[in-house]
Amino acid sequence: MPVITPSAYRPAVYLRNGHLQTILPSTLRRVPEVRYQRQQLELPDGDFISLDWALAGPAPVRQLGIISHGLEGSSNRPYVRGMARAFNQAGIDALAWNYRGCGGEPNRLPRAYHLGDTADLAVVIDQAIEQGYEEIFLTGFSAGGNVTLKYLGEAPERVPPQVKRAAVFSVPTDLKAGSENISRWQNRVYLRRFMASLRQKMRDKAAQLSGHFDLTGLDDLHGFPEFDDRYTAPMHGFASADAYYAHAASGRYLGGINRPTLLVNALNDPLLPPSCFPHEAAAASEFLYLETPAAGGHVGFAEGRPDGEYYSERRAIDFLTRAVPG
After folding, report:
1. 269 in active site
2. For residue 258, how far is the Cα from the chain centroid?
3. Which among 32, 145, 246, 284 has the fewest CB atoms less than 10 Å away?
4. Boundaries of each AB hydrolase-1 domain copy (predicted)?
5. E-strand spans in the chain?
6. Which structural domains are found in the chain, ordered by start?
7. Where are the beta strands (DSSP E) in 181-316?
8. Residue of 50, 269, 285, 312 marked catalytic
């Protein structure tokens, strides 16, 4: 019954609630020490993604941490750079991959990425194995955590033996409830930012691929369910937003996970509804470790340490490299 209680996380003294713990780390944090080496990886369907490598030393080592970012994020988000630095300080190479269209240039095809798209993560892992990595650790934040959990649980027999463990943070394991929760009045600041980015992506995609997309009424779409029903679902072969959420939500796949996996969701996360705290699934699993600290916000977990390290980074490295996870 790997449900971890109580959590060891204690927030920085200057962060007093879930909104501050969400907003300030995202807007104020800088991690300048990380230096990426970019690789463009061609995908089987003719598209591409951008991989950003951060090596722990002058030459690759045998261990690699793969980092999956959140919705409309990239490898340059501070939480990704912080995790890459943490891997490197532990002597582990890091790979931060950018989803289709998130690496600074538009992808080629009339599609984007979505929160259940594990095929691209599988290609990234295969690329790492081709390059000689013998032990691979998966980390993910928010949407990237959902992709990671789904990848591990939907077809565990296809997960390569090189993938050893995973640690994910602030994960909306119930996408339908999460999409409704972010539309609440108190979360409007987050919704506006996400929707502005998604609308601009659609405008850019329509300009790039003339005739593929109808932008009529785009500015009238004010929430995830409407946007996903109009664009995300049909772009990726789903009949509706609800069908997409049902397929992509990692919560339905947790029972299939057979690698030690840590899920840390803060109880004061403003973006996660109660259904995103899967106590029953963790209690029934030999491999899923659920930690629910009272604080942390959404992809926050700042501690105010002199070295600038966040709890999510310390916790991930400790879990991933410990002989017996817990």
Report:
1. yes
2. 19
3. 32
4. 66-303
5. 3-4, 37-42, 48-54, 63-68, 93-98, 135-141, 163-169, 261-264, 288-291
6. 3-174+250-321 (3.40.50.1820), 175-248 (no CATH)
7. 261-264, 288-291
8. 269
Terminal-to-terminal C-alpha distance of the chain: 11
Note if the pTM is more than 0.85: yes
Tell me phi and psi for residue 232, to 5 degrees.
-55, -50
Distance of CA 123 to the CA centre of its chain: 16
Alpha-carbon span 93 to 67, nearest angstrom? 11
Q: Is 270 helix (H, G, I), strand (E, B) or coil?
A: coil
DSSP state of 231: I
pLDDT digit string (tens) for 252-301?
999 999 999 999 999 999 999 999 999 999 999 999 999 999 999 999 99
Catalytic one among 69, 114, 247, 298? Answer: 298
CB 85 within 8 A of CB 31: yes
- Angle (deg, nearest 10), helices 311-321 and 78-89: 40
Distance CA 272, CA 218 (A): 26
CA dist 201 and 195 (Å) reads 10
CA distance 75 to 103: 8
pLDDT tens by residue, 221-234: 989 999 999 999 99
Residue 210 is a catalytic residue: no
At 253, give phi and psi (nearest 5°): -110, 0
Q: Note if 298 is an active site residue.
A: yes
